[in-house]
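Example (one chain per record):
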Amino acid sequence: MKDTKLNYTLNVICRWVVGLVFLFSSFVKGVDPMGTTFKVQEYMTAWSIGGLTFEWALPLAGVLSMGLICAEFVVGVLLITNAYRRLSAWLLVLMMLFFTVTTFMDALTNKVTDCGCFGDAVKLTNWQTFWKNIALDVPTVWIFMTRNMRRKRRFERDAIITLVAVAAMLVFGIYNIKHEPVIDFRPWKIGNVMVEEREPMNHMLMRNVETGEEKMVDYKNGDWASVPEEYKDFDRWEILQSTSDEPFEVKAPGFSMLDLEAEDRAADLLPAEDGLIIVTIHHMAEVDEKGVREVKVALRMAEDNGIRIVMLTSALPEESQAWLADNNITGLDYLFADATAIETMMRGNPGFMYIENATVVDKTRKAGELKIEK
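Predicted structure:
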C-alpha cells in the first residue's frame, strides 16, 4: 500500500472510528464486569463444537470476561494513540474475525439472544450486531493493510501507553466488581419508577356454540359497552375463560415477586408509600458470614424506621426456611424470583434496595449505608 497523504488520512479516520467503538464497548462492559461474566457463562452453556462443551470453563468466566474487557480497551487505546501499529492491527483483525463469526452464528441460531456487546447500555438484536460488525470490518481491513505506513519505533512510549491502559481498566473493573456499577444501565437504576399505572383490560376467551370457533375478546375494565355487539349474543357465544390485567405494570421485563402460593406480589409491594427494603439473594449458598450480618443490620433498620422488609431469593422455600433458621434470622418474609432477575436488580449477594412509592431510592451492598428517606 502506497504511503500517500490520502491513504494515511484514511488510516487515521479508520483508527479513530474503530478505536472509539472499542473504547465505548469496553467501558460499558467494564462498568459492570459481573454482567459480562453472566453473558460469558451464557455462551459457555449455550454453545458446543461437535461433542465438546464449554461448561467445564464456567469457573473461569470471570477471568475471561475481565480479559476480554481489558483486551478491547487496550486495542481501542492503541488504535487512537497510534501505538504498536502492527501489533494493534493484528489484534484488531483477530478480534473482529472472532466477533463477526460469533455474532453470525448467534443470528442464525439465536442460541444467545443478546451478545452483550455494549453491556446493558445499548441493546441490539443479533442481526443488528452482526451487521454492526460487518460495518466495522471495512475500516479494520484498511487499518490492517496500512499497518506499516509511517510507522515509527517508539517502544518506551508505546509500552507506557499499553501498561497504563491495562492498569486503568483493571482498577476500574475490579472496583465495579466489589461495588455496584458506578453507572447503572439496568432497569433498577436509582431514581427509576418501577411501577406504572395502566388502564386495566378484561379478556374473555369465547366459543361459538354453533361452529366451535374460539375468539379472545378484549374490552376496557368495567365498560361492557366496549364489547363488540356480536359477542354479546350469548345464544351464539359462550364464555370459556375471563381474566383481567393488573392496574399496575412492573417496568422490568420478566420480573416477579412470588409468594408461597405462586402469586406475584410485585405490583402490590413496590408502590408502598411507607417504603420497602428488599434484601436480594440470588445464590443463597454463596452468602458468607459478613453477608448474614448485613441482613441482620437491614432487619434492625427496618424495625427502627417502621418499614416493611422482604427477602427476594431464587432458593427453594425449604432452603430459604433452613437458611433463616440456621442463621437465627426471624421476622424476615421471603419471596421468590429467578436468579437472573435478581442479579439484574443487584449484583451484590446479598444486596439491599430501598423503594418508596415504586421509586428506587437507594441500593447498596452494605445495609448500613442504605439511605432511607423518612
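Caption: The chain has ten helices and twelve strands.
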